[in-house]
Design a protein that fits this description.
64 residues, single chain, CHP03980_redox-disulphide, mainly alpha, globular
């Protein structure tokens, strides 16, 4: 499975466990919460006020 900004936070962490530290550096501290199971990376960026391009670049994922 290819991880993109439309993948969920949980899919990202399962595929790339090292991404948890990157997300925490951006202020996303609740990576294991229920919302992370269904919230996409794109949605999380909006909620946390993080530029999507900047987050995607740090995570090494595609913006489609």
């Amino acid at each position: 499975m290819s991880i993109t900004v439309d993948s969920t936070i949980m899919e990202l962490i399962q595929a790339k466990p090292e991404s948890a530290a990157i997300l925490q550096n951006f202020g996303m501290g609740c990576l294991g919460c229920a919302i992370a199971h269904n919230e996409t990376i794109r949605e999380a960026a909006v909620v946390h006020g993080i530029p999507l391009e900047e987050l995607a670049s740090a995570l090494g994922i595609a913006i489609e």
